[in-house]
């Protein structure tokens, strides 16, 4: 996978100047979605609570990292998109197994990661089963990590069934961010997703099971909101089952005070051995996800930058450094050193300001364009908010919508890397074209004439004229040139 933040220098003792230089050419990339508009669309108090959380603020995900520790293996429900051999698919990619840890191991691993990954700002527990059902281990892990690294944000993800039993403890422990997966508010629809739940010492099935789950999820949501905890709702979009229904889910969770709604595509593969995978239930295409997200715009704020990461993920969203921190690679003893995390934060504060100013300038320039269509732009980036990756090296494109109203991040699309050692792979190219459905232009640091011509033949323009610009500035400059207006101040 392309390193969205290839801060190689941050793995070694590093000066603030080196960190700044690294961020200028890496980091992560995009602009405004979900809670991303920063202080303009929320109170300073709220911004303070989300500005370092890579999932709750799209803007923060350029700079900050989360890690998950897989300490909670037990689960109390069955989802049709889950195979218990693997991790909880409500918050992670199905078909991936994490190294399961006890709280002792988890604390050691968090300290080791905090010493190596200065971007780390959040510790999440997202399974591999349910973090609330396996509450004892979740609680012990959070409490012990908090003593060692008090400024690390604690984040929990749950299916919601056991949640109401622990809301008071969650509030007492200063867990400020909780995700509940809610796939339906109609138990008839829920029954197509959940074959059973285990509640009150017995197993429930059918509509009754979904009714119980729904009541507990809504109760948990209300209780968290009443205590001022920020709640994100995850929903898995399952075509033909709950896709259109998620519009109602969005309204319902907004009414209950959810902060953010993350609509994730079902990932369905027979090889994962899930009910949906084995029965041929398909996942949605990127354009179907976008169309649904566009329909719910105006309801609960949307998260569009989720990477459906693993239950033992480490790093900036979109990169996974988990394999660098398996237990067998950790030193015998570890002790926390806050120096590099502190230094990194001071660097980010400056870079962030520059990026925000550039976005404002790009917005003002686009407003001058006049009447022009909205287009999708795919950007090859290895991070830092810049167009800084070769077309052939991209394993993911960040997708933005541009119009005279501005540049808006709308999602990402994963692709197979096209170029290996100077040679383009035919199969990968075909896959990229299919994945970029609906996109009008690809912007990258460099693209060869051959792939450029081939993209143009299928109606996708390609440009490397804005290599290393800030993304919003580069897109705005390209768009303004395309529609006949010369931008005043656009590049950094
Ligand atoms: Fe982890 Fe989830 Fe907390 Fe983030 S992930 S528990 S809120 S710290 Fe984030 Fe990963 Fe998407 Fe989850 S990108 S799968 S939304
Ligand atoms: Fe699997 Fe998570 Fe659903 Fe439990 S809540 S069945 S672990 S996807």
The SS-based structural class is: alpha/beta
What is the tally of helical segments?
Answer: 14
What is the first-to-last residue Cα distance?
27 Å
Percent helix range: 25-40%
Question: Which strand order do you get reading across the main beta sheet?
Answer: 10-9-8-5-4-3-1-11
- State the low-pLDDT regions, or none: 1-13, 25-37, 487-492
Radius of gyration: 22 Å
Number of strands: 18
Hetero groups bound?
FE(8)-S(7) cluster, iron/sulfur cluster
Categorize the overall geometry: globular
How much β-strand is present in the residues?
15-25%
Major β-sheet annotation: 8 strands, mixed
Which oligomerization state do the chains in this entry correspond to?
single chain
Mean pLDDT: 87
Cofactor: [4Fe-4S] cluster
Domain Radical SAM core: 61-312
Keywords: 4Fe-4S, Iron, Iron-sulfur, Lyase, Metal-binding, Nitrogen fixation, S-adenosyl-L-methionine
InterPro entries: Aldolase_TIM, Di-Nase_FeMo-co_biosynth, DiNase_FeMo-co_biosyn_sf, MoaA_NifB_PqqE_Fe-S-bd_CS, Nase_CF_NifB, NifB_C, rSAM, rSAM_sf
């Amino acid at each position: 996978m392309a390193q969205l933040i290839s801060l190689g220098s941050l793995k070694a003792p590093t000066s603030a100047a080196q960190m700044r230089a690294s961020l200028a050419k890496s980091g992560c990339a995009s602009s405004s979605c979900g809670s991303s508009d920063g202080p303009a669309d929320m109170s300073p108090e709220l911004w303070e609570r989300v500005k370092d959380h890579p999932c709750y603020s799209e803007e923060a995900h350029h700079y900050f990292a989360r890690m998950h520790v897989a300490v909670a293996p037990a689960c109390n429900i069955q989802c049709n998109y889950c195979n218990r051999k693997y991790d909880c698919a409500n918050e992670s990619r199905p078909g991936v197994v994490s190294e399961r840890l006890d709280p002792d191991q988890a604390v050691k691993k968090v300290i080791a990661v905090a010493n190596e990954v200065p971007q780390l700002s959040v510790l999440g527990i997202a399974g591999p089963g349910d973090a609330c059902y396996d509450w004892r281990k979740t609680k012990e892990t959070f409490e012990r990590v908090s003593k060692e690294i008090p400024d690390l944000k604690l984040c929990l993800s749950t299916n919601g069934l056991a949640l109401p039993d622990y809301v008071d403890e969650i509030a007492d422990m200063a867990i400020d961010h909780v995700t509940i997966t809610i796939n339906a508010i109609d138990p008839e629809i829920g029954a197509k997703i959940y074959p059973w739940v285990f509640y009150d010492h017995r197993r429930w099935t059918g509509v009754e099971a979904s009714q119980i789950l729904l009541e507990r999820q809504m109760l948990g949501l209300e209780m968290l909101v009443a205590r001022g905890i920020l709640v994100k709702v995850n929903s898995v979009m399952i075509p033909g089952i709950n896709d259109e229904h998620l519009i109602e889910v969005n309204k319902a969770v907004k009414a209950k005070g959810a902060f953010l709604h993350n609509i994730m595509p079902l990932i369905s593969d027979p090889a994962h051995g899930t009910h949906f995978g084995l029965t041929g239930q398909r996942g949605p295409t990127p354009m179907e996800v976008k169309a649904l997200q566009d329909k719910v715009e105006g309801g609960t704020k949307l998260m569009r930058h989720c990477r459906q990461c693993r239950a033992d993920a480490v790093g900036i969203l979109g990169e996974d450094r988990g394999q660098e921190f398996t237990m067998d690679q950790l030193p015998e003893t570890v002790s926390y050193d806050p120096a590099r995390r502190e230094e990194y934060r001071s660097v980010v504060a400056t870079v962030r300001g520059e990026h925000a100013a550039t976005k404002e300038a790009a917005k003002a320039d686009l407003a001058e364009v006049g009447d022009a269509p909205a287009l999708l732009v795919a950007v090859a980036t290895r991070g830092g908010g810049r167009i800084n990756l070769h077309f052939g090296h991209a394993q993911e494109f960040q997708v933005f919508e541009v119009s005279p109203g501005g540049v808006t991040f709308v999602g990402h699309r994963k692709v197979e890397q096209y170029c290996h050692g100077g040679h383009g792979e035919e199969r990968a190219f075909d896959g990229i074209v299919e994945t970029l459905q609906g996109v009008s232009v690809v912007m990258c640091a460099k693209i060869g004439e051959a792939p450029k011509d081939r993209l143009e033949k299928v109606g996708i323009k390609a440009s490397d004229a804005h290599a290393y610009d800030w993304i919003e500035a580069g897109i705005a400059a390209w768009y303004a040139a395309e529609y006949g207006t010369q931008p005043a101040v656009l590049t950094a």
